[in-house]
Amino acid sequence: MSDPTNGSPGSTPFVEIERAAWADLAPATQLPLAPDELTGLRGLGDMLEIDEVSDVYLPLSRLINLYAVGAQQLHAATSAFLGERSPTTPFVIGVAGSVAVGKSTIARLLRVLLARWESTPRVALLTTDGFLLPNAELERRGLMQRKGFPESYDRRSLLRFVTQVKSGVAEVRAPVYSHLSYDIIPGAEAVVRRPDILIVEGLNVLQPPMGNKLAVSDLFDFSIYVDARTADIARWYEERFLKLQRGAFTNPESYFHRYASLDEAAARATAADIWQRINLPNLTENVRPTRSRATLVLRKDPQHRVQKILLRKI
Ligand SMILES: Nc1ncnc2c1ncn2[C@@H]1O[C@H](COP(=O)(O)OP(=O)(O)O)[C@@H](O)[C@H]1O
Ligand SMILES: CC(C)(COP(=O)(O)O)[C@@H](O)C(=O)NCCC(=O)O
């Protein structure tokens, strides 16, 4: 384990842990996941390796479980001090990072792993795309080419949603986004019912508050930034686009159906163009600048393998 602050005190709030040292921190428990259970957790059928789960994500789920238990105890102690008997509040985790860096794969995996630990069996997952403004509204505001930028979300509703879950409201409802129609699904709802843990996954969840207002990141008990080199993320975006082009885009209902007949070179060029115009500027201007706000940073190599973990120590 190395400490990047050695030699330059105060330069970073993170302790840097190499993969092998992190893997040694794994508790001596059985991996609570059978290999075939991994299949459904992969983003689009890629190889989320079993050793990646046991070396990186199992220890991470244990660490988060310890934080969650600590928060439950603190909450109980505070309630006792105040002479109240208030129920525990959900522990809220944010997962941030670029489009195509692997946030949803990690969030879904953590959901399953965290639910296997005693004391946090009920884990809910919210993706912030449900809080994107509908396409009609984005068009009205001239934001159709800014999907995923902070201003393309209904941030007030997202904040209200997480506040209500954290306040212990029995049922909280969120809108639902479809990657197929590339729009909010009219009338569809995701319902969260008093989980032990809520995972909030999205590009911009670590954005700082504006002015005197609260931001959703103010409600996080733990946050993860998924990091990789920009060139690797661009390649993952292109590869995912090609897979979707051969799969989901062939559905006539798909917003991108017009791309289904492109040959490979044209499909790659289209993916590169969307990356250059929308997702790369958003990564550079809005997403990556929030990295240092995370509790923990996972740094991936070109094969999606986590090489380094940065854990906030102050
Ligand atoms: N740990 C991993 N191992 C292998 N492939 C992965 C891993 N995580 C993500 N991927 C692949 O990378 C692409 C982007 O992942 P995804 O979770 O959809 O990203 P995001 O939610 O950040 O847009 C998908 O094609 C997915 O299958
Ligand atoms: C839906 C997204 C904005 C991601 O939303 P998130 O769940 O991270 O809030 C993104 O996947 C997206 O579709 N971006 C628009 C540009 C593109 O088509 O890649």
Polypeptide structure, described:
This protein is globular. It has one domain (14-312): 3-Layer(aba) Sandwich (Rossmann fold), CATH 3.40.50. With 314 residues, it is an alpha/beta fold. The strands form 2 sheets. The protein has a 7-stranded mixed sheet. Strands 4-5 form a two-stranded antiparallel sheet. The two termini are 17 Å apart. The protein has helices spanning 19-24, 35-38, 50-81, 103-116, 135-140, 155-166, 230-246, 264-287; strands at residues 14-18, 91-97, 123-127, 172-178, 183-192, 197-201, 222-227, 296-300, 306-312. The chain has 8 helices and 9 strands. 37% of the residues lie in helices and 18% in strands. Residues 1-7 have low confidence and may be disordered. Ligand PAZ is lined by residues 99, 127-129, 147-148, 202-203, 274, 278-279.
Number of strands: 9
Integer tally of domains: 1
Radius of gyration: 20 Å
Number of helices: 8
Q: Can you tell me the CATH architecture?
A: 3-Layer(aba) Sandwich
How would you sum up the global shape?
globular
Task: Write the element-wise H/E pattern from the N-terminal end onward.
Answer: EHHHEHEHHEEEEHHEE
Mean pLDDT: 91
CATH superfamily: P-loop containing nucleotide triphosphate hydrolases
Protein name: Pantothenate kinase
Keywords: ATP-binding, Coenzyme A biosynthesis, Cytoplasm, Kinase, Nucleotide-binding, Transferase
InterPro entries: P-loop_NTPase, PanK, PRK/URK
Binding site for ATP: 97-104
